[in-house]
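Hello Y.,

Per our agreement to keep a running log of every chain we model this quarter, I'm adding this entry. I've kept the format consistent with earlier entries: sequence first, then predicted structure.
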Amino acid sequence: MRYKVQKSLPRAEDIIKAFPVSEKTLGRIAKDRREIKDILSGKDKRKLVIVGPCSAWPYAAVIKYAKRLKKISDRVDDKLKLVLRLYIQKPRTTKGWLGPVNQPNPFENPDIEAGAYYARKLMVEVNEIGLPIADEAVFTHNAKGFIELLSWLAIGARSTEDQEHRIFASAVECPVGMKNPTSGQIEIGVNSVLVAQHPHTAVFDEMQVNTGGNPYAHLVLRGGLERPNYHLEDLCKAKELMEKAKVKNPAILIDASHDNCKLNGVKNPLQQIHVVREVMSTLALYPELNNFVKGFMLESFIKQGSQNIGEKTKDDVDLEGLSITDPCLSWEQTESLILEIAK
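Predicted structure for the entry above:
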């Protein structure tokens, strides 16, 4: 093995002890998970909306965004279940910043110890505000201290074909969205859902275990390299494939960002609004799909767009809510779109 030890890391128990969560909030997380499961199974007719920054940085701006989202969540709670996208891990197509859990200060060297405390503190604070949170499982080996705070989890496009991630999804308590791969192939996304719903024998924490299978694993359509996949024909294809495979609680979310929001090969955050409107129009015309399409994912922050921090110093970067990864909708655009979905 080619690696050099830099330092030992704190135990998960130490991180949890540093930032404990109240019993009241733990009860609310359990309630949020049940409500999301009920949406996915059809017991709850509300739509699910996973919304928030592409990456959970910087801390103060994320908290400011969370407080705004809590207010709008209270207004639309009878129609929508809003979950804050609080992504502490970032997959990369080639190389780049891996998110605040790995490098809490993008202008300094990676520091996983500091990142773990940053992420745990942020997750606890947002939960205490009263919002359910979501993350993507990029690294599965360091979940303790974070996974118990999540109400929803994603397996990303680069991980959805990986057996370790699929088995991990089959073991977690919260609902898991399995994205189609970067190729855009819906069939592979459905296969991932099937694997996540199935029990497995695996190694966790140096023990042989049997996972229980996750009956609330579901499909997330996020587009592909060649084309988006949120149109009518894509929804019908996904529905047909899931019914043929006898998927439990068949459900999909539409990720309005990523390859679904590209214009001429470039991500355009405003395209997310068009994606949502087209899907909502489709559901109005084809009510049989309305019980299958359970909601949306949106990338949104306080300011529209993104910034490339590149070789900049912290003094040269906007720290007031402008994404340093994927471009996002502004808060004003997000609020308006959420109210539109809730009508």
